[in-house]
Specification:
Layout lengths: L1 H13 L9 H20 L3 H14 L4 H13 L3 H14 L1 H4 L2 H35 L14 E2 L5 E2 L11 H21 L15 H17 L14 H11 L6 H8 L14 H9 L10 H14 L12 H13 L7
Antiparallel strand pairs: 1-2
Helix pairs in contact: 1-2, 2-3, 2-4, 3-4, 4-5, 4-7, 5-7, 8-10, 8-12, 9-13, 9-14, 10-14
């Protein structure tokens, strides 16, 4: 039945072969034929042909929502998930009603889950390769760096066991890096964490809700030894860190931003003596975005942060104090771009 329908649509399209099909009814009819041909190809599992048909249909009318939805399905079929995600964003913008339907939501879930799984497999493969290279020598001529219990800092004091990322960064850059770790994890949780929206990615975010989410991150960072501790002046200052946070943490921040600001971003860089925003955030939360399940510590930190929002000022005593956090809420609330969405 579908093969016969395909022949009919192919035959109808030959009528347009010598016509421009770019104006008026001719363009509209050709677009419908191409879109319907794409649907038939999808039913026949010919995803390559379906993708080509939708591309032609959209070249005639970029606002053809049905053709774009079918294109998303075709891209899933040929395992082009990144392009499918881009098309999803376009369709959400041009056809918000379709974006609210259950079939569309199901397709979005498939795409994001597929991206998450491929990302996880890729990182696992790279990590296994690096570990094998380090273990065997692999002709690399060096051994894996050992993680020290602490690292001495200029001027005295030490880094905590998970705070090696701070070594070599100026104080201001440490604060910005720390904020970027949080921001990038919010992006990762959206993209790879089952569309978990928190912080600035929460559709109903406010200055206070972002501060609460960031506070949970800060509490976990202290608990998991990610913050450099120093004994003398000139070291880590939570009040200074929160001033920097007020400039950044209500904005989106993805891998390309990390590469532009810091030169690179590779979750396995610490294995080779470098630093990684994504890896640092994993040390804070105790897991990766792909695991999609908050640890007990993370849940407890979130509960503590919420308790602060409800009036327990003592919660923030070890991360800057009540005044600094109240100022952060005020700063975030005043930003016109916040909430992000």
């Amino acid at each position: 039945e579908f093969r016969a329908a395909r022949r009919h649509y192919d035959g109808a399209l030959t009528i347009f072969a010598t016509r421009s099909g770019k104006t008026g009814k001719q363009r509209d009819e050709k677009g419908k034929l191409l879109s319907n041909l794409a649907e038939v190809c999808l039913r026949l599992d010919d995803y390559t042909a379906a993708e080509a048909a939708t591309a032609s249909a959209l070249s005639l009318d970029g606002a053809n929502a049905k053709a774009r939805f079918r294109r998303i399905k075709a891209l899933i079929g040929i395992d082009s998930l990144t392009k499918a995600l881009e098309e999803i964003s376009v369709l959400e913008a041009i056809a918000p009603k379709i974006a609210k339907t259950e079939p569309f939501k199901a397709v979005v879930k498939v795409v994001k889950s597929g991206i998450m799984n491929s990302h996880k497999k890729a990182e696992s493969a790279v990590g296994d390769g690096l570990r094998r290279a380090f273990t065997s020598g692999g002709g690399l001529g060096f051994s894996p760096p050992k993680v020290p219990e602490s690292v001495s800092l200029p001027g005295g004091g030490v880094l905590e066991h998970n705070a090696g990322w701070a070594d070599g960064l100026s104080q201001q850059d440490q604060y910005e890096w720390f904020c970027n770790c949080y921001m990038m994890r919010c992006d990762d949780d959206y993209l790879y964490g089952g569309c978990y929206l928190h912080g600035p990615y929460d559709g109903e975010a406010t200055g206070r809700s972002i501060a609460v989410d960031f506070l949970a991150f800060c509490l976990l960072a202290v608990r998991n030894g990610v913050i450099p501790l120093v004994a003398k002046e000139g070291g880590w200052s939570w009040s200074e860190c929160l001033l920097v946070a007020g400039r950044f943490v209500c904005y989106a921040f993805e891998k390309s931003d990390a590469q532009e600001r810091w030169g690179s971003e590779n979750v396995f860089a610490p294995m080779m003596g470098g630093r990684s925003l994504r890896h640092t955030a994993q040390l804070v939360y105790g897991n990766s975005a792909e695991e999609q399940e908050a640890s007990d510590d993370a849940q407890n930190a979130q509960a503590e942060a919420q308790a602060w929002a409800e009036g327990r000022k003592s919660i923030v005593a070890r991360v800057g104090g009540a005044t600094a956090w109240d100022e952060l809420v005020k700063t975030l609330a005043e930003k016109k771009e916040c909430p992000l969405f």
